[in-house]
Amino acid sequence: MNQTCDLTLELKRLIIDTLELEDITPSDIDPEAPLFGDGLGLDSIDALELGLALQKHYGIKLDAEAEETRHHFSNLNALHSLVEARRVN
Amino acid sequence: MPFSLHLEDWRGWLANEGMLTCDPRYRISSPPGNALPAMLRRRLDDTGRATCEILSALDPEADLPLVHASRHGDTTHTLGMLEALEGGEPISPTRFSMSVHNAVLGVHSIACTQRRPMQALGACGDEFDAILHEAQGYLMEGHRAVVAIFSEGPLPSAYHGHTEHPGTACAVGMRLTLDPGRRLKASGPVRSGHPSPLEVMGWLSGDTPFLAGRHRWQLGAE
């Protein structure tokens, strides 16, 4: 398994564990599907929780009000690109 | 104001089912089922899930006022947040959002699109009398019935010996009316006890002849 797959799986597990998605497995998360609203169905509290998890695990600080944050959270692939580009640990 | 409440139906839940002696038709199984949508259910612990199951069982049409009491609330997660703050760690937004006393009723109302009056209360051990007073108020206003529910979650070990607690997570709900059902008779006031949901269940099951709270409560014949 290459590093991209490793990070994809790691992010899926981070989402499942952090957001306590007890009925969801990593294979249920489509990297192209929206994380919020339709698709996975996460809500605004999940967005805050996910932002905190990114800070704890990867040292990435996001501005909750910024438009680019919406883009980073649009789907798993976007989140993957963010972590690859901005992780400090 | 004299009480004129009647018990139409009830349900009880105990985390440790082995301790429960009540008739199976009044029992909510443990662990509670998956009646709530998964994305809402994940935010509640077993006590919250059981509370929602009891509410759905007693108010299947989601059209009655609801009163929910808990003396201590979700102490496990509250303590976790306090420990995070003490350690200089950020607290979980999810836990913070769920730390209000009416969080369980809120989740239930979203899941069932329940738009009737709801209230959550804590009463320092007088929860049983308090929910009956509130229920009576709604009934006097003209509602046909009210569901009054009383729950306690597990108590973290740090609090053991510092407060009264039934020793297990438990919940009991009653559908109350002004007429049909078994009469709830209040005498006193006695102010002799702080009944927990576990004791209320024992009393409703007929294990004890009366329940001592701010009043001495007796249940009329079926």
Automatic annotation (TrEMBL), chain A:
Pfam families per UniProt: PP-binding
Highest taxon in the source lineage: Bacteria
Residue ranges of domain Carrier in the record: 5-87
InterPro entries: ACP-like_sf (IPR036736), PP-bd_ACP (IPR009081)
Protein name, entry field: Acyl carrier protein
TrEMBL record, chain B:
Pfam short name (any one): Ketoacyl-synt_2
Domain of life from the UniProt record: Bacteria
Entries under InterPro entries matching the protein: Ketoacyl_synth_N
Positions of the Beta-ketoacyl synthase-like N-terminal domain: 27-186
Name of the protein in its database record: Beta-ketoacyl synthase-like N-terminal domain-containing protein
